[in-house]
Amino acid sequence: MAKKENALATIDEAQYPALTSGRNINAVMKVNFGGDDVKPEDLITIKLPTGGSITWLIPTTEGETSTLVLEGILVHIAMRRAYWKEGNEGFPDCRAIDARIGVGDPGGDCSACPNAVFGTKINKDGSKSGGQACNLRRLLFMVREGDLLPIVIDTPATSLVPVKNWLIAITSRGLFYYQFLTRLELTAAGSGQEKYAIVKPSCGPLLSPEATEKILNYAKTLQEVFSAVEVSVQDGQREENFTPQEM
Q: Among candidates 12, 14, 33, which has minimal Cα distance to 22?
């Protein structure tokens, strides 16, 4: 969690178009896209780096930029599942946009699916690991300083526990995730060839009550975009060491 003094500060709302111009986002998208809807793939998606790197890489129109801390306001959080019988490319054989009910083969209740059992994940060399065959991810939608549209931070199974623990901590304090600035750092885990990054969230300054109301209205206008985003698997992401004990 953030230091106590951070919770008493407030953000510079003028630096966030989602707060100052958020109510106009539908009009902006309608004009710029010629009536075409903003599709999930139109949003910038940021995935965890490989090899244990603790530097975020952010794609832009001018190329990638890097930062040690992703900072912004969370406007939506979602869980997704996706299952491929072979590999992890192309459209999944089964997917669950709510991480509860799968559509496809095998489909059905995710909690009763054998592919959601720990120990069923198949590694690239054909061996089994402690993970799940069905890929579970948490998507964090964040609006950053200077941006009107949110980015999507795609967090894999190895980061599910630390993010959930943080959500439990802010819930214990009676906070909603959209009431403050969120900071996402990375820590390295594993060793040797099996190094990977884990998300480390923390709380920054609070939004004012007026800004909180604005960000809620902003999020409502983008609800269709949020609900449409699917899981995308990060090729090369090391999750072989993830075990049930970490859940």
A: 14
Q: Cβ contacts of residue 212 below 8 Å, gap of 6+?
A: 176, 178, 179
Average pLDDT over the chain reads 82
Give the HSE-up count for residue 222: Cα atoms under 13 Å, Cβ half-sphere. 31
Task: Report how far residue 195's alpha carbon sits from residue 1's, in angstroms, rounded to the nearest whole number.
Answer: 25
Q: Smallest Cα–Cα separation from 222: which of 97, 38, 86, 73?
A: 38
* Euclidean distance between CA atoms 12 and 145, whole angstroms: 9
Give the tens place of pLDDT for each residue, 198-238.
999 999 999 999 999 999 999 988 887 776 655 444 433 43
Distance CA 194, CA 82 (A): 23
| Element housing 35 (H / E) | none
DSSP structure string for 63-86: EEEEES-EEEEEEEEEEEEEE-SS
Q: Residue 35, Cβ neighbours under 10 Å: how many?
A: 7
DSSP SS3 for 56: strand
Q: Which two structure tokens, joined as six digits, stand for 208?
A: 């004012």
Question: In a 3-state reduction of DSSP, which class is residue 205?
Answer: strand
